[in-house]
Automatic annotation (TrEMBL):
GO molecular function: DNA-binding transcription factor activity; transcription cis-regulatory region binding
The keyword DNA-binding belongs to this UniProt entry's keyword annotation: yes
SUPFAM superfamilies to which the protein is assigned, alphabetical: Homeodomain-like
A Pfam family reported for this protein in Swiss-Prot or TrEMBL: TetR_C_41
Protein's name in the database: TetR family transcriptional regulator
Ranges in a coiled coil: none
DNA-binding found in the keyword field: yes
InterPro entries reported for this sequence: Homeodomain-like_sf, HTH-type_TetR-like_transc_reg, HTH_TetR, Rv0078-like_C
HTH tetR-type domain boundaries: 2-62
Database matches in PANTHER family: HTH-TYPE TRANSCRIPTIONAL REGULATOR RUTR, HTH-TYPE TRANSCRIPTIONAL REGULATOR UIDR
DNA-binding region boundaries: 25-44
Origin superkingdom: Bacteria
Gene3D superfamilies, per database record: Tetracycline Repressor, domain 2
Source organism of the structure: Methylobacterium variabile
Amino acid sequence: MAETKGKLVRAARSAFAARGYAGASMDDLTAEAGLTRGALYHNFGDKKGLLQAVIDQIDAEMAARLRVIGERAETPWLGLLDEYEAYIEMALEPEIQRILLLDGPAVLGDPSRWPSQNACLAETTRRIRSLVDDGAIPAVDAEAAARLLNGASLHAALWVAASPEPEVTLGKALDAFRRLAEGLARP
């Protein structure tokens, strides 16, 4: 069963990246995986369920990459900011741009309501609470700050992904995000 799921996710990820969600037919996906439509329905319910599985996989890979970036920083606060900036920069990567930031919201709805975003919010809240407890940043409601940072970075990434000039938009987004986030560290 895990092998079947893996084949379908790999085929879907490749097809969604190359042709987009709308351009990837279920028949093509299952043929690429060497499986039947029944296998897709059995394992994922439908094409949307398969897209969610692909997004979950990409999200997990992004989270691992971001952790490495954050761990390299001089301080936990700078690590958090570096992770957010790297997340926004990932909007330039074609696979992330198309699957996660363009097709995902169009098909699955508001990304801030996706399970992976809720996990990210909980982790960010924990980290901000720790930064406040350690005196690294002034007292602030950790959940409120986490929601605002997550929302700002998500919307910046969506803006970059949808922009006709993503490189230019990225520069604007990173500058504004850093200025907003640095305000949390000021007394």
